[in-house]
Design a protein that fits this description.
heterodimer, A: 118 residues, mainly alpha, 6 helices, 2 strands, 8% strand, globular, B: 294 residues, alpha+beta, four-stranded antiparallel β-sheet
Chain lengths: 118, 294
């Protein structure tokens, strides 16, 4: 199904809201699994988002300029003995898109908890 | 290799599979991102003391749950790559030739991909339906048929039939003959095991000859069971009397429940040995199977 350009689906709004929450908590960026974990902790089901669903949504937000992404320094990952992480950050456009999306939602909509907060 | 490692390996193989023919930057990025995700999940689980099977289950669920999105993402990347190729060439346009066709905007799913998927899903549906129907057809139905407990009827009616007809009560569904059993003839309880501890007034004989398996018919004149194939003969309790059979007829356990005779055809009890017969019953008339045939 095609979506109207510029609109967000609930998962995308959740990602942006979670990213902003993390920023407020002192973490400017986040990586994929960290995001899945944060979303799971906020949701009632406490299940990690499926790989394909999560990374497709991240890719779409990145393509739309609502997130910026950068790969971390390989030396740092090697020093910690793990694969490289791709770090995402919510852009100003992302913040505005989330605010617009929130105003368009009914007051008591069935949103993911991460979206209702803040 | 732990269960979690196996699941992670499967997830990595799936990523390699659906990114195999994508442009290298997109494919490599997705693979690297998934590799990082899987590693981080396993490390977080190890720190939290989550058992390996639970991690494996979570990884598999995340992998399978994301398959439609993976394929959608792949379709979009392929379409974007095609659009890029069309936009880059041809570099040389001959004067007078028709203008290049406008490049169509890339969509998530092309017609070709859609048709291929439809064909694949349709074939899977047909094969699945056919497979399901075949399995359903071949699935054994053990509710009441041979191999399960079968009700023969009321004990009074069966006994009345046996006495009035002077013949066993035939139960085709159980492949058995019901004959009258009297504990008076069996003081040691030899057949207690197949007559519910001697309480059943009937006994079920498997109608297969103990020799080579022919069905053994009842002979009215001799009041014995006589096999037409090789002449084995059994008295009315199915005990060996003559012929090549190595023992008496096999039997099924019988019980009487609420006045109804129930034959358990799931268990065949081997018949008595040649010398193990206890019912004294001589042939009561002419034999049905002649000596020449024996």
């Amino acid at each position: 199904m095609r979506r109207k350009r510029g609109t967000l689906v609930p998962l995308e709004a959740t990602i942006l809201a979670t990213g902003l929450d993390l920023r407020r908590a002192g973490e400017p960026g986040f990586h994929g699994f960290q995001l899945a974990q944060e979303i799971a902790e906020e949701s009632q089901a406490r299940k990690l988002t499926a790989h394909g669903t999560l990374y497709k949504a991240l890719a779409r937000l990145e393509d739309a300029g609502l997130l910026t992404a950068s790969w971390e320094d390989p030396d740092r990952a090697a020093a910690e003995g793990r694969p490289r992480r791709k770090h995402y950050e919510v852009t100003g456009a992302g913040e505005r898109a989330l605010a617009t999306w929130r105003t368009s939602q009914p007051a008591r909509s069935r949103l993911r908890p991460g979206v209702e907060r803040a | 290799m732990s269960l979690a490692d196996r699941a992670a390996d499967l997830a990595r193989r799936w990523v390699r599979r659906y990114t195999r023919d994508l442009p290298p930057p997109a494919a490599e990025e997705r693979r690297a991102e998934l590799a990082s995700d899987l590693w981080e999940q396993q490390r977080a689980a190890a720190r939290a003391g989550v058992p390996s099977w639970a991690v494996a289950l979570s990884i598999l669920r995340r992998m399978l749950g994301g398959v439609p999105a993976d394929l959608g993402w792949r379709g979009a990347r392929l379409a974007a790559a095609r659009t890029q190729v069309a936009a880059d060439g041809p570099a040389l346009v001959v004067t007078g030739s028709p203008p290049p066709r406008p490049v169509r905007r890339a969509r998530g799913t092309t017609r070709r991909v859609f048709l291929r998927r439809s064909l694949g899903l349709g074939s899977l549906g047909v094969l699945g339906g056919f497979g399901g129907a075949t399995v359903g057809f071949l699935w054994p139905d053990l509710r009441g048929g041979f191999g399960a407990e079968i009700e023969a009827g009321s004990v009074e009616e069966i006994l009345a039939f046996i006495r009035s007809e002077r013949a066993p009560f035939v139960m085709p569904a159980a492949r058995a003959y019901l004959v009258e059993y009297g504990p008076g003839h069996d003081p040691d309880g030899q057949y207690a095991g197949v007559t519910d501890g001697g309480t059943s007034p009937v006994m079920a004989l498997y109608w297969r000859c103990a020799h080579l398996g022919c069905r053994v018919p009842w002979c009215f004149s001799s009041q014995w069971l006589e096999c037409p194939c090789h002449g084995s003969a059994y008295n009315r309790w199915g005990e060996w009397q003559e012929g090549p059979a190595p023992r008496g007829l096999d039997r099924f356990p019988v019980a009487v429940r609420d006045g109804v005779v129930v034959v358990d055809t799931s268990r065949v009890v081997t018949g008595p040995t040649r010398r193990g017969g206890i019912l004294e019953q001589s042939r009561e008339g002419l034999a049905c199977v002649t000596l020449a045939a024996r």
